[in-house]
Each structure stands twice: as structure tokens, then as C-alpha cells.
Amino acid sequence: MIDEKGISEKKEIQISYRDNILSFEFSALNFLNSSRNNYSYKLEGYNDNWIELGTKREVTFTNLDPGEYTLFVRGSNNNGIWNKEGTALKIIITPPWWRSNFAFAGYGLLLVIAILWLIELCAGGL
Fold first, then answer.
1. pTM for the model
2. What three-state secondary structure class fits 126?
3. What are the residues whose beta carbons fall under 8 Å from the beta carbon of 71, sequence distance 6 or more?
4. What is the pLDDT of residue 125?
5. d(CA 116, CA 61)
6. Are strands 21-25 and 12-16 parallel, antiparallel or unpaired?
7. Which run of H or E residues covers position 47?
8. 46-74: pLDDT as tens digits
9. What is the spatial distance between Cα 23 and Cα 3, in angstroms, rounded to a whole number?
10. pLDDT at residue 7, rounded to an integer
């Protein structure tokens, strides 16, 4: 489990495929009547639509596939005025070793060796 505080200053995080539950908690910088602040998010690479959370300040993702995602979050103040810019965080989930580029290169090499071996075996038998 990774518990990282102060992530607001980061633009990117990289995590392992084993860390399959991601939770983010956020807040808007309006403290006059913060119980009326609203939030929305979208996770590009998974769902490109904005999802309204209402006054809920947390979002959790489970079992995301390895790959690259960008989490966008925006908020509104107690008067319903939305921050159009919001904030973004790039999330990179690394694959297991058997699904890495090096592993696929190894699988390809093994396939070429097996094909060459079969060609040699068939040519020697004729």
C-alpha cells in the first residue's frame, strides 16, 4: 500500500500493477461554506466523460489495467461557480514483468528460435 500525502505538487505518479486500489481525496480553496463545494472528475484512458461527485471529495479506482491515465479534477465554490481549469495528475501503472516490452521481445526471440529449429529439423529429415 502506498499512502502519499501532499500529492498536489506532483504532475505524475508511477505505481505497480499490484497497487490495484487508488483513492484520491481533494478539496477546493473556498472555505466560506465548504460543505456546498461540488466536485467532478474524469480519468482519461479509462472514461473520458466528466463524472459529477456532488459534495463528495473522494474518488476510488480499483483494478485499473497497466497503462497511462490522466486524472482531471475540478471544483466549484458554494455559489456553483466552477473552476474551469482544475488540476491534472498523470498516473502510470506499470505492467507485471511477463507483460513488459522486454518479455514480449523475449517471447518473439523464442518464437524465431523455435521456427528456425523446426525448419532445420524438417530440412534434415528430407
1. 0.77
2. coil
3. 24, 41, 42, 43, 44, 88, 89, 91
4. 62
5. 45
6. unpaired
7. strand 47-54
8. 998 999 999 999 999 998 999 999 999 99
9. 9
10. 60
Instruction: Name the residue with higher pLDDT: 102 or 8.
Output: 102
DSSP one-letter code for 64 = P
Mapping DSSP to helix (H, G, I), strand (E, B) and coil, where does residue 83 land? coil
Distance CA 10, CA 2 (A): 15
Give the span between the Cα atoms of 40 and 102, in whole angstroms: 38
22 vs 41: CA distance, rounded Å: 14
Q: Which residue, 26, 25, 61, 21, is CA-closest to 45?
A: 61
SS3 for 11?
Answer: coil
> How many angstroms separate the CA atoms of 64 and 59, rounded?
14
What residues have CB less than 8 Å from 67, skipping those under 6 apart?
45, 92, 93
> Distance between CA atoms of 8 and 86, rounded to whole angstroms?
12
The model's pLDDT over 69-112, given as tens digits with 9 standing for 90+, comes to: 999 999 988 888 888 888 899 999 999 989 888 999 999 999 99
Grid coordinates representing 94 are 506499470
Report the relative pairing of strands 58-62 and 21-25 from DSSP bridges: antiparallel
